[in-house]
Amino acid sequence: MSKDLLVFDRHKNQIITENIFGEGGVRFLYENPFGAALESTVLCRPWFSKLYGAYQNTERSAKSIPDFIKRFEIPMSDYESGPFHSFNEFFIRKLKPGARPFEPSAHRLAAPSEGRYLFLPSVQENTKLPIKGATLNGPALLGDFPEMKPFIGGPGFISRLCPVDYHRFHFPDAGKILSSRKLSGPLHSVNPIALAARGDLLFRNEREVTILQTENFGKIAYVEVGAICVGKIVQTHSGQTFQRGDEKGYFLFGGSTVIVIGEPRKFAFDADLLEKSASGRETLIRIGEGIATAV
Predict the structure, then answer these.
(1) Across residues 22-42, what is the average pLDDT?
(2) CA distance 240 to 79
(3) Is 282 strand, coil or helix?
């Protein structure tokens, strides 16, 4: 694949080149035979990511924050100020109130995370992604449980969060939680470089699945996918009910992914987003932005 990872920024209405955190390391682990062997036998184990995450909780890790902000041009004016006593405190920084207003229309589905999105009009048992060799298996992703069957064939999206992004995820509509479960697995990278090398990672990695009953879009399967060096997925919401835009949780250090699958014929994604995804281009979406309309 091309050395440059190009993404369409919907807010700026232009194609941008993604500045990949640790790009050399990712390519070594998934494009080099020795690196691939190391990743698949040692580095994908949960203990490695937890150990790495523990370091990011130390005061020493905070020393890398200024260089990280400068290198990746983090717009700190959008976020609440520190002080940050560790890199993880910086990593889970909160947005300032009003920095990302949620779509106000009840019939418009709001983006629950800030990341690079691929939109799929229908998620089946073997849905091919516009990344060479990559697929998304709906039943394998959600766990083959009876309550998951209504989602087969429904619309879905994959939101890839990079280490430079806002790492809290939110509810896209008001509603209530019906059930939740954790599905164990390894912790591989979910970068497109990794997916091009090993296309089944999204439904093999450790993940947490929550079934939501929303007010305007039917039932939704909301999945957080762990990845290499993700210290932990933290669920911060308490109680069964939630409002549009409420925080659901956050990822500690590392890039990761949020996947949402709906029931068939409950909502339809915007045509421009489907067009970009069909051509193989991810779209950078800001959290709270409208991405679909209730049917």
Answers:
(1) 62
(2) 28
(3) coil
